[in-house]
From TrEMBL:
Residues 1-33 form the signal peptide. It holds the Pfam family GLEYA. It comes from Huiozyma naganishii (strain ATCC MYA-139 / BCRC 22969 / CBS 8797 / KCTC 17520 / NBRC 10181 / NCYC 3082 / Yp74L-3). This is PA14 domain-containing protein. The gene is KNAG0K00780. The keyword Signal applies. The keyword Transmembrane does not apply. InterPro entries: GLEYA_adhesin_domain, PA14/GLEYA. Residues 112-272 form the PA14 domain. Keywords: Signal.
Amino acid sequence: MPKKQTNPSASFDQMKTSFLLLLVVTFTSLVSANSIPCIPWQFNPPSCKLNGSPKPGFTARFFHLPINQWVYMRDPSYFANDYRELGQIGEVSGITKQNFVSTIPCIPENGNPTFECYTPFYENYPRYKCGDVQCSNSVRTPYWNNQIYGFQTTVSNVTVELTGYLKAPQTGPYTMIFSNIDDVAYFFVGSDTAFGCCNQDGDLSEVDGYTMGVMYPYAKQVTFNMVEGQYYPIRIVYSNAWMSGTFESQLQLPLGNTILNWGKYVYTYEDKTCKNPSSSSVSASSTSSSISTSTVVSVSTSVSVSYSTVADCDCTYTDSDGVVKSYHTDLPINTRK
Ligand SMILES: *[C@@H]1O[C@H](CO)[C@@H](O)[C@H](O)[C@H]1NC(C)=O
């Protein structure tokens, strides 16, 4: 058999091929490494050290939202700050029960009495059905009641902003769960994202981005560390674009218990009574090494993720009872720059 002639270009091709193969193998293993249960995204939002006289609960501000405006619902910039440009219509304070559901009236086609409908679904658009009952009124109409914190508004089309300081009852990882959102809600935590220290009443010039955004019918959650006794600015911006609405959130504490009425940990500091004893805000990141996450997650959390990465991930973790749980998480996202 003749000795195979060594063709320099052929061996170069071989080299290229094996290099490419190596690339493919490396890339494939990277991809599969990424699709293995991702490490839960945790971060240390900057907090505030506050003196002064806080009042219990959130402050809610209501903003105009034209009915059926889906272009706003799909725009993170709307929820980060642009919602304020459409105009404020009212304010309610002292909210410790932050969750709500709203209904719209169904006027039955068969002449039966009008009743409040929580779960309308559109059929024979623009009319809708509630259960088996065909309603004769339209989903495109604004409907009024006071089911959102007692404030009389069009529950069918409104944007509600909640602000307050979440005072951490313990040191450790917290998980904010938006479990049932209709239509859209965004969550902001930290003085760099929600609002600046002692600037709850003020503008949003000090903050940027958002922590988590959820659109109907998905549920999402995000985990972050807090230090006991520190005040963490939080902001929630909720919108309903039409029909009935729901805002259902829960907070999982470091010891694992999940709380529905977590608004009891929230305080409002009017800017004029709010005193910031340190000129710079206290960041939890300086103390994060002392935070144990072993009660909630069994995987290492020492991943570093770039702040501006736009990504979601589906995560699983094993809880303290050995049960594998899965959830969807968002990474904080910059919306402006
Ligand atoms: C809801 O829509 C109606 C009709 O477009 C409008 O008159 C009303 O002001 C809107 N509500 C809010 C809170 O903007």
